[in-house]
Every structure is written in C-alpha cells, then in structure tokens.
Amino acid sequence: MDTKYIIGAIVIIVVIIGVALYAGGAFTKPEGKITIVGSTSVQPVAEKLAEAYHNANPDVNITVQGGGSSVGLKSVQDGTAQIGTYSSKLSSDKAPGIEQYVIANDGICIIVNKDSNVTDLTADQVKEIFAGNDSSYTVVTREEGSGTRDAFIDLIMGGKNGTNITKSAIVQSSTDAVKQAVAGNPNAIGFMSLADVDDSVKVVKIDGVEPSEATVKDGSYKIQRPFLFLTKGAATGVTLEFINWCLSSEGQKIVQEEGAVPV
Known about the structure:
The chain has 263 residues and is α/β, with parallel strands linked by helices. It has helices at residues 3-24, 43-56, 69-77, 123-130, 147-157, 175-183, 213-217, 237-246, 249-257; strands at residues 32-38, 60-67, 83-86, 98-112, 120-121, 138-142, 170-172, 188-193, 202-206, 224-232. Strands 1, 2, 3, 4, 5, 6, 7, 8, 9 and 10 form a ten-stranded mixed beta sheet that branches. β6 (138-142), α5 (147-157) and β7 (170-172) form a beta-alpha-beta unit.
C-alpha cells in the first residue's frame, strides 16, 4: 500500500480517537456552578480563591456569600450550597455526614482601639474582661452562631460550660462590624480573624505572644482555629476539583496573601 495512504489512514484514526476522548470528557475543562456560603471570617479568603479559579476556568461560576458559620453548615445540610465555610473546630457529632476540608489556619486576635494604651494581656485577663469583670472596657462580640465566637468561647472562656460573655457586650453580626465598633470607641475591646486585621485597630499580644503567620504555624500563639470548607458527603466533580486546587501550592499562595496561614 502507498505510504501516503497509510499516513492518511493513521491521521484519520488519531482524529477519530481524539474526538471520542473529547466527547467522553477526557480533555474537557472544568465547568459548572459552585455556591459557597458561611463564615464572614473565611469569606474574603474564599472570594479571592473563587476569583482566581474562575479566571483560570471561566466555565466554572462560583458565588461566595457570608451569613456566619452556622448558616454555612445549614446551607450544606439542606443542599442550597455546595460548600459551607466554617471558622472553628466542628465535631462530627454536630455535623453527621458532613465532610470537612481544612483550607487554612487562623489566629483569633484580641483587638483594641488604636488610642488604647493596652499592648499585652494574659489569656486569664481577656477572660475576665469579656466576662464583664472590668468596667473600664466596652466589650464587643460576635453573634450566636458565629464560628469566631464559638472558637473564642472554646479557647478563652472555657467552652459552653465555662464562663459566659457579659450580657452587656455589644453584639455585631460580622467581622467588619466588630472592627468598626472597636475602631470607633477608645474603650472598646473585641476579637477578630488575623486574616482580616488592618491598621484601623491595634492587636494585643496574648501572654507575650503576638499573633502572626509564624506564631500560629509554630503553635506559640494559642488562640487559633481552622478555616473549613464543608460538603455534604465527600466532594465530587467540579466542587472537588476546586477544593483540590485551593489546597494546591497555587491556592495556598492566595491563602497566605490574604493573611491566613497555609496548611
């Protein structure tokens, strides 16, 4: 048989195989829609991750919303979101059937007004202040259902059966609201995510240790918690691809740029 006919036949076969593989999904790019709902602490990091992933994969549309950690868990449980974001440790008893992916770690910072003379407190002093035993402070806290509040209660107040946050505390429904309340009151004290701290407030050392990526990573800063992505059962399809990308070196670089601590 003529060589040119053999080459032509091979080309045709290769094209047919390529078309079949493409149609079967072997060469298709990720596509679909992901809704992410939950923690306002995780939200800025999730938004940056979603933006970068969409830019690289335009056929994947990702929406990110806040609402608090409890909303994130409920949204995944009832199927209205593919990913729920949660900003404290979550026991499997509280969330049966929910898969947890740690995408970052975070320090919970104790913050005061920029004009405050306070620079260093012990964990016990923070506990007493938030219990309302020091009238020189205006306590600012997050609402019930906030993952940051839950983590703060576990790590500082002694858990659900420990000391209560004072009933006179000013309650805010988001990280930014806490920051604004403290920035606007010279006597205020609050807590917020290390990833969201800026120069509008002052961060207090705890037991002599300043919260930072390094002190969270080495464990010397004790007030820390995970940033979680939650899914109903193990993640699959485009949701799994997105989570895996978030845990890749590219995704973790964005986590670090946003002030959270890579895993």
